[in-house]
Every structure is written in structure tokens, then in C-alpha cells.
Amino acid sequence: MDSTPSPSSSSPFDLVSSALGRYIPSGGAAAAAGPADAQGDRTTSRRVPDNAAASRQDQILGVVNLDRDLRITRCNLDAPVFAGLDPVVGSPFVALLPPGDVPTVTRRLRQVLETGEAHVARIQRVRRGDGSELVVSLSILPAAVPQEGLTISVIAMAKRLHLYAAETAIGTSLDIGETAQSLAESLLAWGDVAAVDLDFAVWTGEGVTEQAQGRIRLRRAALVPDRAWPEGYVTPGDDLPSDASRLLAQAVRRDDAPQAIVIPDREAIERVLGSPRVMRALVPGDRSAGVACIPLVLDGPPPVVLGVAEVWRRADSPFRDSELFDLQELVARTVHHVDLARQHHREHTQVLALQRRLLPRTGGDTIEIASVYQPATPDSAGVGGDWVNSFPLPDGRTALVVGDVVGHGLGAAATMGQLSMEARALLSAGLAPDEVLEHLDETVTLLDDAESGLAAGYSALGSTCCIALYDPVSHHVALSSAGHLPPVLVSPDGHAGPLTVRPHPGLGAEFALREPFDVHTFGAPPGSLLALYTDGLVEDPAESIDEGIARLAEAVSTVHPWDALQQAARHVVSALAPARQRDDVTLLLARMIGYRKEDTATWRLPARDDAPARARAQVSALLRRWRTRDDTRDNVLLLVSELVTNAVRFAAGPITVRLIRAGHGLLCEVGDTGNGRPRLSRGGLLDDEGRGLHIVHRLTTRWGVRWTDTGKVVWAEVAR
């Protein structure tokens, strides 16, 4: 029966079939008006004009009709390019697809059914009966009323059209594996099996040099189609046997220049590969008898081979010169994407190494620390500038720092490292959190200066930072923030919520926007849990930032006091972080322990001449209760006497003496209301001026000064 519709037909199926009818014989199932006729003899057709024979070979258009259950009701896929497809009437349309594509295409088909809106030009693979695949463009159209269902136009991708479409698709990811997979899927239009093998140096992000080509080591990056492969065959992630890598390298570097080669038949393949082991590793099956090997060549003096792409065909379908030219052109157009992915991976690895180096290692006797850092997914803009750090200060306190530098990549990493090290140095020198942020603010402004800036082409303006100092004696935390999200505090009774921190512009804000940085002080009794984090952990396009912080507070509140803190931190991140991260995720958990009351003592003394004697008496009695060794007790008494004497002599106001028994020694602190910085002079012990500090320097393992709102504290540590 002739299925060519009348010109008045309005069905999308009939319109497409009308165009096909001028070239394609369409009898039996190909064009039957209904299921009954569709089971007729497929050989019944009208005569094709002789002058249409050449056009018939170039025909790339087909059409399929589906019912609402997505089953085939009519089809016209008789063009030679669709040979091997088996669109049985009554069978599901998705039976023509690779299994991995079925969910996505099914969802798209049902969406067109429900909305009535067409979906045009989806690049898709369809499977032939022999397992090979064809790349086509699918357009899904709603069937014309009164019919129901869908009409799908199928366009076999012309090689030149496919070449340009493939080039665009391959450059959409910066991940090496995904880039290689896109290239292999594009190469599949020229064969039955396509594979991409890359030099090992590409995987590590290293530069591939000319000298390395003689000892090339290949790893399989991509392989299509997705199916069960013979035992011993190299699949993605496997290294090729050394002799196979060497043979491929030699094959594509004839006359000392990389070039494509074709091994036309099974006999030639066996002669070239030689070893049965290499045959099992490289030949995908008995039906694959010919292969084209195209080197991935990076232009340069001299050219460098990044890897090899292989396209396999059956013996009855040899490669034509025009096809080999198209394969070479496609690889040449896209090899720079592979190199970009390599460079991105190298930068990603370098920045990630810097990030991990900044992560805190351990806590201490007074605080327990756990941190998690997860970089953005590899195909994102690159590792960001999130950083987190925790370190003990010489005076017994602990610094907790988290920051987020604007941007991604090496520029952000360099700024991140500079700010992190500067913050650590300033905090160790005794500066308060707000003073440290003031210095970081000036640094970011300097880095952005066009004339004196050190980060040319990169701006860190708007970077954020939060600094918290934990005092294990008073069990208080002093916190300052520059535009950063508020930390979450969990009290010992389990109540959790974000701290109320006055918002402040980020670092490097315009002068008109600058305000003094606030210091927020709050109690953190033993058992409290403090969470510092970056926005990648709580940001979600589907909810507000406040909702994200609330989810974090709820997750942190479930951490039991007996839970291992590192494991708990990983659990919190896995519960909140998205599967594919477009930004870095950073979390720092700090469980406060503090000192026991019996390990600390504090006295307040008037700034009078008898203050040193009173301090010695109080400290002597305490050291006897602590059963301190005589030599240590003598050193501590002399140390306290000298520090208190200096405070009486050069400062004013009440004097505070604090003694702390720690695992590593005894920490002595003397605070006063003076603002002068004690300095060690060049004089000796016999010089009256500066003699006290020389004694302090000789008796202690380390000493220093920190500044307070009312003055300063001179601290010193004595080994027990």
C-alpha cells in the first residue's frame, strides 16, 4: 500500500512522510496507516526514479509516531542511513536507545505530552540491531488533533554538521574525563566503537614534553558505547599495557611526526599488534576489524602528542579518505579542550594542595578541632578562595579563623595564602581580632591598587573573614567579622543558633563604607560547640541564606558530646552540601574544653610597692598545693616578682596576676593598664634599666605581650 499522504493532511507524521515519499520507498510498516497494515510486506513499494538514487543515499530524515504510552504506532525509517534500526510497531520507542539515555528521553517525551510544547533538535544516539550506534537529532512534536501521542522527526547527523555540533559540545566541561567522553561520543558517528587514551601526564596535570613521547604511558579516558566488554579489554580508568602504549605511540609518530593511521582489516591488526595480550587489550571484539588511530596533537615547535583516539569499524565498512579527513579535523578542533582540562586540573591540584596545607591539624588540651574542606566539582570555575585555620596562641588561647576570598584559581589562592599567614602572624603577636581585620582590610586594598598591587588582573575586594579567640580560663570567645556569615553556637544543653553579629562590609570596602570592626564577646562554657563555615555549605538557590543557616544549626545540634568530632563534621557536610558543588565547602567545628578551675588562679592587686611581695606569697602558696618542684617554684616566684615590679613601675591602675597549670608547663600572666610595649634592651643582667626583662627572657621558654581594651598583658611560660 502506498502511504504517501494527500497534500491536505495536517499530521506532522504525514507532513514529514510526504517529504520522504519523493525519495524513499515506503511500504508495509514504514508507512502503514494503522497497526493492521503495518504488519504487511516491507518489500512492497513504488518504484524509485533512477535520478533519485543518489539523493536517496544522502537522505537523512525519518519519522516515528508514538501513542500516549510512548509505543510506536507508525514509522518511516527506510533511508539507508537508518539501516539496522528495528522500530517494531507496538514496541516502546525507548527500546531504540542506549539504556543510560532512557530515563532522560522518557522524561522529555512525557513533558511534551503534558505541555504540548515541542522539543527541538536533541542530539541523541540510537542503537542498531547489531549493537552499533547512530548519532541523530530528535525533534519531539505533539501529534495533530484529533490524534493523540507524539511525532518524532529523526535526522541522522550529516558528518559536517556533526563535526561543528561536536566541537561545541566538547568544550562545555573542564573535567578531563568528561571532555574525553564527549570527544569519544562525537567520534562514534564514524564507527561502531570509539576510545580515547591520554598520556598519564595529562591526568596529573603535568606538561607533556617532546622528550616524554618515547616513553609514553597511556590511560584509557573514555570508551563508547556503554556495554559489556570482553575480558582483558581496557576500559576507562585502566592503564594500557606498556607494549600497547608503545605500539600506539610508534604508530602515530611515523617519520618523527604525529599523523593519523588506518589499519584496515583483522589480518593487519594482528600483524601490527602481534601479542595476543595486546589484542585482548585493544580490540573491542571479533566484529571490529578495522581501526583509525588519530593522535591528539598540540601544535607547537615541536608538536606534542597528548594521546590517541581510536575509531573501530566492521570489515564490511572501510574508512574512506573523506571520513578520515573529518576525523582528523574533529580531533584537531577539540584537542585544545583536552589541554585546557589538563591545565585546569593542574591549577586545581596546586590550589587544593595549598588549601589542605592551611587546614588545622589538631586542637589541644583546651579545645577539640575538626575541619572539612571539599573543593568545587572539577568542571566548575576552579577551586575557590575558602580557607580555614586553627592554631594555639602562645598565651594559651586558641585562634579560629575562616575566610572566603573572592574568585577562583591561582589568583584567589595566592591572596588566600597571604591573608591566612598575615592573620596568623598578627594574632600570634597579640593583636585583637578587630585589629587584625583592620590590617587585612588594608592588605586587600593594597593588593587591588593598580600601581602597587601584587595581584595583577585579580581583585580580592569584598573578601570576607571571621576571627574568634577562645580563652580557656574565662571560657569566653572574642569574635570579629568582616562581611562573613555568622558562626553557629551550640550550648551544652543542645540549643543551637547563629550568633548575633553586627554586619560589616567585606575586606577592602570603599572608604565611605568603612566602619570600625566590632568585637563580639560571648560565653562558651565547656561542652559548647562552635561552627565556622563558608557560604558554599549553606547556599541553595531554592531557599534563602537564613534557611540554609538554620539547616546548619539543626545539623550541628545533633552532634553528641561523645561523638568523634571529625566524623561528626563529615556527617554535617554530607547532609548539607549539594552533590555537584559550584563553590567550595568549608566547615570548622570547635568543641570547647577549657581548663579546670583547680588548674587556674587569678589575683587582683593594687599598683603599690608591696604588690610584688603580695604576689609572691599568693603564688608560693598555690605552687605548694600543686606540688611543684622547688627549682620550678623558685623560677616562677622570681618571674612573677619581676613582672609585677615592672607593672608597678611603668604602668598604672590595678594589676592582675594569673597562673595557669597546663600540660606543657606553667603560664604566668601579669596585666596592667599601661600601653607601653616592653622591649628587651641590649643591656645585660647587671644593668638596672631593663634587667627585669632579661631575667624573664632567661627563665622562660617563651614570653610575649597581648593587648586588651584596658591595657596589656605580659605572659611567660615556664617548663615544669
Description:
- With 720 residues, the protein is α+β, with helices and mostly antiparallel strands.
- Helix content is 32%, strand content 25%.
- The protein contains 17 helices and 25 strands.
- A 5-stranded antiparallel sheet has the order 2-1-5-4-3, sandwiched between helices. A 5-stranded antiparallel sheet has the order 7-6-10-9-8, sandwiched between helices.
- The longest helix has 38 residues, at 321-358.
- Residues 1-9, 21-57, 210-214 and 684-688 have low confidence and may be disordered.
Q: Count of helices?
A: 17
Q: Would you tell me the overall average pLDDT? A: 78
Q: Let me know the number of strands.
A: 25
Low-confidence stretches: 1-9, 21-57, 210-214, 684-688
Rg result: 37 Å
Strand order of the largest sheet: 2-1-5-4-3
Shape: elongated
Notable characteristics:
single chain, 720 residues, alpha+beta, 5-stranded antiparallel beta sheet, 17 helices, 25 strands, 25% strand, elongated, disordered N terminus
Question: Could you write a compact summary of the structure shown?
Answer:
The protein has 720 residues and is of the alpha+beta class.
Provide the fold topology:
Blueprint lengths: L11 H10 L31 H6 L2 E6 L5 E5 L25 H14 L3 E9 L5 E10 L7 E7 L2 H12 L5 H12 L5 E7 H5 L13 E7 L17 H11 L8 E3 L2 H8 L2 H7 L5 E11 L5 E11 L6 H38 L8 E8 L9 E9 L5 E11 H20 L4 H15 L16 E8 L4 E7 L5 E3 L5 E3 L21 E4 L5 E5 L11 H13 L7 H12 L8 E8 L7 E6 L5 H15 L4 H21 L4 E7 L3 E8 L18 H9 L2 E6 L4 E8 L1
Antiparallel strand pairs: 1-2, 1-5, 3-4, 4-5, 6-7, 6-10, 8-9, 9-10, 11-20, 12-13, 13-14, 14-15, 15-18, 16-17, 16-19, 19-20, 21-22, 22-23, 23-25, 24-25
